[in-house]
Prior knowledge:
This protein is mainly α and about 270 residues long. It is built from 12 helices and no strands. It has one domain. The two termini are about 30 Å apart. Its EC number is 3.6.1.27.
Amino acid sequence: MSTLEIIILALLQGLTEFLPISSSAHLILPSQILGWQDQGLAFDVAVHVGTLLAVVMYFRKEVSVMAVAWLGTVGVGPEKGQASFDGKLAWWILLATIPAGLFGLLGKDFIEAHLRSALVIALTTLLFGFLLGFADVKAGHRTEHKPMEKLGFKGAMLIGLAQAVALIPGTSRSGITMTIGLMLGLSRDNAARFSFLLSIPAITMAGSYLTLKLVLSSEAVDWFAMGLGSLIAFISAYACIHYFLILLEKLGMMPFVIYRLLLGFGLLWFILN
């Protein structure tokens, strides 16, 4: 890959991983539309590491509190962790990650073979864009929002099942998890925060799988591309989380809904012409 391709693809990964517009779609599209070569396993690992470090660093206080509380629930560390909400939240996030892991393990070959096309991306971009818009309007008209504590295990698992659906390119992991969070009564901010926290084990799982594939493959490693890609993905993802949460309070999801609809219809036009 050229340096320009490295920068563009890393920026796309960092900016779109946490925005409700589908990172997989934006990483697949350059090869579909511009004819770029696939970036390879090593680069995928690098940008996943960058985005994972960004979300862990941004939510480092919440993650550390949850980790200590979770240890309390299994008899390690402070006993108060057994009854704290942070301990429950940690369990919800871990268990809600299982559906995506199972779906990815069982369906990855089918997805790779049949669903990584511009047409599928266009259709899922439109469908889940409309659903995000519906959920956002519904949340905007709500006078009271359900606190995170009232989400419950069942609600957390519903969001986890939605995250599994996001393995279909164009769906957007953050988009569909925020959509379900909003539909379950969470505020925009809490829906986004739960989605971001849920992304930590999900990205860890995906990155670990890609790392294992890389180790078992004979692919040559471009260390410059990996280093630069990881750094750019980290910086852009960290900035993206920060400014997205600010923008969310002021404008809601609608700018991203409009972007998805424009992108989806634009892709359909490109495919049909």
